[in-house]
From TrEMBL:
Pfam families: START. Residues 18-166 form the START domain. It comes from the Eukaryota. GO terms for molecular function: lipid binding. It comes from Spheniscus mendiculus. GO terms for cellular component: cytoplasm. This is Acyl-coenzyme A thioesterase 12.
Amino acid sequence: QAYVTYSNIAALTHLAAKPAWEITGTLDDIKIWTHEEGDVLSLKVEMQVKIPSHLAFSLLSDFTFRQQWDKHFLTCEVLQAVNEDEKIYYVTSPPMTGHKPRDFVILVSRRQPCKPSEPYAVAVKSVTLTSMPPSPEYCRSEILCAGFQIYSDSNSSCTVCYFNQVTSGVMPYLAANLTGSSKSIEDTALECIKFLE
């Protein structure tokens, strides 16, 4: 268990530190970057938010708030609170045309910074839970590595970076967004900023 939670945070830190991110879109308070490696595509969305970093951390690390701003989250319930900083959630996503709705069992690990220069971290990855086997109604999907890093800019503002590493399996969902229109990603980011502020 300790290894899984450690590797969750470590994977996010490693993903964030990768070189050669390419910027693909920019709005006033949002920048979108991508990183490709083999059949793995990673996405980074950087948002400028006018609230203190500790508040953004508290709102973003509680995934039960997620469906208030992310339309990809239909339902989200806590299956197990491992400890104060680790929770396992069960998430369902709305169906895409011609596909079954997806579901996920995810571990969310959160960490406060050790030093002022370090970010708050909220890391997400799929885990297997025997009490939640895949069901025929849903297509069980996997999150390799996703999450947030939150950097304090001032007492009243912060930079929130959202990361998601996508395998070719999730590509059909994102392909529509990334080819020609990153609009859905931008919309979600705008909703996230609105929710936080």
